[in-house]
Amino acid sequence: MNLSAESRCAGVAQRAASDPRAEPAGALVDGAAPTFGLEWDLRTDQLRHDTAGARALGLETDGNGETGADFLARVHPADRAGLRAAIAAATPAKPTFCARYRLEAPAGQRVIQDQGRVRFDAAGSAIAVTSVSADVTADVAAHADHSRRLDLLVDVMDRLPAMVMVLDTELADVRVNRSMSRILGWSRFDLEEQDPLSLWWPQPRLREHARATLVHGGAGTWTDLPMMDHDGNWVDVAWSSASLPDGRRVALGIDVREQRCTERRLAALERRFRTMAETVPDILFTTDAEGRADYVNDRFYRTTGLQPGSALGEGWLDALHPDDRANARNVWREAVAQGRSLRLRYRLRCADGAYRWWESRARPITDPDSPDAKPAWFGAASDIDELVCTREALEEADRQKDEFLAILGHELRNPMAPVRNAVDLMQTHRLTEPQLAWAVGVIDRQTRQMDRLLDDLLDVSRIIRGKLHLSPRVVDIAEVISQAVDASRQQLEARAHQFQLDVPDAPLYLAADPARLAQVLTNLLNNAAKYTPEGGHIALQVEARPGTLVLHVRDDGDGIDADLRASLFRTFTQGQRRLERTGGSKSGLGLGLAIAARITELHGGRIEVDSPGPGGGATFSVYLPRTDAPAPERAPAQCAEAPAASGELSVLVVDDNRDAADGLAMLLTAMGHRVQTCHSGAEALAVAGGERLHLVLLDLGMDDMDGFETARRLRATDAVGRPMLLAAVSGYGDNRTRERARAAGFDRHLTKPVSREALAQLLCDAAAVGAREDGPADSGETGQGGPE
């Protein structure tokens, strides 16, 4: 039961008391609810309703017949006591009352609002009750619905993480949600007792700015209004306000402390980046996803002398050398399209008008939150002009060094060739005089050593430049070992070393260049012979492991100091060299082990060395990958008979060095062949045009007509129809010279001095070519004077 203020019902109650029989049908309480009259005689317990009341309550229209007990029985049990108490509380001095209760009616439960008066007799006893009653069922339902909506709205506002303020335009009535108290720490009591704007914005200037923003701000417009919290700290808040239909305004505040803190950190990082970008000596730049520059640091403008901002977009291309511009644009656009990093070199025009070499490096900046989005780019450009000039100077020096080595090899091999031929010629005869035999042996050994040193010099040059190429095939390791042992036999026997060979009976295969791999083992065996005392022991052992072949070269010689092992495979590295060793058995350039290590690496292997130290000997182990046995191949054609026995080959030797030509001719004659010599290209062409030749040995470095031109003309003469093997003999053994020789029409290329074994193989090949009347000469390259 909800009792209203007495003043609210005094007027109606007074009218009912003055005229109890009046029927105020249609009168309104609060101007809305329908009303009716009621009179209750307490003495007889009879109630009388007016017509409107009878209709409203579903009673007989005459309004009689209901007792007070009947009426109270229809009042909701929870409201009866309240109604009785309201009536009982009336006194002669204060006879009016108000009561609200629920009443059961035929049409359903109604809510009745009574505004009445109790009449008393002279003794002060209540004798009757008159009231004007209103059916406020609809009003109560509407009020309840409004209350529910309002409660829901308040609950929603309180649950919002953002701050919400409802205020009038004068800011006299300001209501806030719980988030305001939670974020700022001010309780609702604090805000009710004091001016909230003065608490939030203590400074008048800030307070006026906040007032203008909250009262006049437009919807969707956000304004930063930092607010003071309960502890005196400033809180970053962004506010937006809008008008409500009743004239008040609602404002929404977002706590942006983290956002502003992040923005300040980003601004600090950007300042730091720009400071760094303007300090470093490189040109730094960023671009958008399309590759258009959106930032270029000041270094670019200082270097080029261009106006700030002119490099943006693709303006930086204007500063490039005209010959580099198109390539730079295409490479850059291709990298952007493919989203890959790039390195780009170009010449940049500097402020003084000169061009300098620069190198740009750029990479995409991907967004992990948007992996499919096109990335922006970051890049840096460095001045590499000095590096480029230095590299060009080094390349020129390297070219000159290569040219010098080639010339050196050529000039040293040219005089060695006749010496070598003379030795080979003398060795074809029986030397009965001991001193003569000794002299020939010394010349033989020393010329071979000189040849080996020249090969080492040229090999290490090729290795350093990455131009050492292999011709691998599947080969049995026994074949390689046989070549290596044969090549080192003289070294091993010279000092009476005890040599032991341990090779498994079963064939073991690997994919290798047999000549180069034999060179590795030869170098290791020669190294062991060099550092093992006379009569010492040297062993070569082959160990088969799953997937790997290990070749061990052991000796009981000088051993290796631990400090030397780390640099043992570097070029020009040797064991301790004393003055007395120079020119003796331990002389050399220190290239053999370096060459062996690089060739092994090219085969996919490695070399390891182990030694207990000085005097303890050493073990070099070569690790190489094994392979399966090769498929059966057709055996290569062999000479039907020894060339020396055939006596049928006609050979032409062409060399402007008479000693070299005559020496080689005498050796070939001693081997049983018909030989002619010429000392110029013109003489060679005249001889070749007059008779059938099986083999032409042609020097390349002649004066009047070099060997290349002579070969081309030989191939162009009628001699081309007659089978003939054309072999270049030169002190140059580099790949470029070999390619030129092949292009000029040579079938073979031999490096001076030509060994007797290589010469014998060449004669065998020439005999085979002469025997083929129906096919051109084979264009392969075999029988070289030394490993290349």
Write the layout of secondary structure elements.
Layout: H1 6-18, E1 28-29, E2 33-41, E3 46-49, H2 51-57, E4 66-67, H3 68-74, H4 77-88, E5 96-105, E6 108-120, E7 126-135, H5 137-159, E8 163-167, E9 174-176, H6 178-184, H7 188-193, H8 196-200, H9 204-216, E10 223-224, E11 227-228, E12 234-235, E13 237-243, E14 249-255, H10 257-279, E15 283-287, E16 293-296, H11 298-304, H12 322-338, E17 342-349, E18 355-365, E19 376-383, H13 385-427, H14 434-464, E20 473-476, H15 477-494, E21 498-502, E22 509-512, H16 514-530, E23 537-545, E24 548-555, H17 562-565, H18 592-602, E25 606-610, E26 618-625, H19 643-646, E27 650-654, H20 658-670, E28 674-678, H21 681-688, E29 695-699, H22 707-716, E30 725-730, H23 735-744, E31 748-751, H24 756-771
Parallel strand pairs: 21-23, 27-28, 27-29, 29-30, 30-31
Antiparallel strand pairs: 1-2, 2-3, 2-7, 3-4, 5-6, 6-7, 8-9, 8-14, 10-13, 11-12, 13-14, 15-16, 15-19, 17-18, 18-19, 20-22, 23-24, 24-26, 25-26
Helix pairs in contact: 13-14, 13-20, 14-18, 15-16, 16-18, 21-22
